[in-house]
What does this fold into?
Amino acid sequence: MKKGVSLPINMIIIMIIAVLALLVILAFFMPGWFKQTGTIDVETAFTKGCNSLSILHNCDPDTVEDIIIPGFDHDRNGEPDSLYEVCQLKAAISTHEDCAHLCPQCKPLNMTR
It folds into this structure.
């Protein structure tokens, strides 16, 4: 094999590797190529969950784990998180009642005289 022939073959291999590297880098910037999870922040998820709790569930504390927030997956398990999980992130609450009362629309009325 002549030296003049080996240079173009080496150059072709380097070009192929460079093109593959560019494609990999480009893939990270192309939306829709990878599954998007956790695309909304805690405040947005909390607002959506509270709206659902007040409008659809009449502020019933027993439903905070049933209210699923589409687009919010804080633990990255592939499933959207519930309003209860969002409440725990937002305020480190421990009960369903505390979560429901954390929502502005579902705050308990103060019984003052």
